[in-house]
Amino acid sequence: MKLVSDHTTFDALQRHLLGELVASIRDCLRDAGVEGSQLYEATASVSATVAAIIDGSREMYLDDHEVIPVLSFARDRDGGDLIISDGTGSSMHDYVQVVVDEHVSADDDDGEFDESIDFGMDDK
Predict the structure, then answer these.
(1) Domain that holds residue 61
(2) What span, in angstroms and rounded, lies between the C-alpha atoms of 15 and 31?
(3) Residue 117's pLDDT is what?
(4) Alpha-carbon distances of 99 from 37, 67, 121, rounded to whole Å
(5) pLDDT-flagged residues of the chain (< 70)
(6) Which is the most buried residue in 36, 39, 64, 82, by most CB within 10 A?
(7) The dihedral formed by the CA atoms of 28, 45, 104 and 68, expressed in degrees to the nearest 10
(8) Domain-located, residue 60
(9) Tens-digit pLDDT profile for residues 55-81
(10) What is the number of structural domains in the chain?
């Protein structure tokens, strides 16, 4: 397994992951009957909480030891190369408001998050 430090690709991938999380949370809340501004607020709140946990920006402990998640992305299912940040770690919580705005609108459409991501690793 090779670790590839590529902040640009990592950033695009973490934002796409957040988009998938937000869309899933929105759909679950919608299925539970949450609508309108409550759908927006609940989606934003749950998404921010989940993003903070994944980012490690929320303190977590296990047996008095801090638990610090480190996000990475595999290029393929074989997991040969892992794309990591340049040492700054993930920052999905910083994107929550923008991504929620992209996924939950006033007219409550499906707000697909369509972003093409260049893994920049095809020649490697």
Answers:
(1) 2-103
(2) 24
(3) 47
(4) 16, 26, 26
(5) 106-124
(6) 39
(7) -80
(8) yes
(9) 988 899 999 999 999 999 998 888 788
(10) 1
N residues, the chain: 124
b/e sequence 103-116, b meaning 16+ C-beta within 10 Å: bbeeeeeebeeeee
CA-to-CA distance for 46 and 26, rounded, in angstroms?
9
- Give 107's strand partners: none
In a domain, 117, yes or no: no
If you ran DSSP here, which 8-state letter would residue 120 be given? S
Distance between CA atoms of 40 and 45, rounded to whole angstroms?
9
pLDDT of residue 111: 46
Predicted TM-score of the model (pTM) = 0.81
Whether 120 maps to a domain, the answer reads no
| 49 assigned to some structural domain | yes
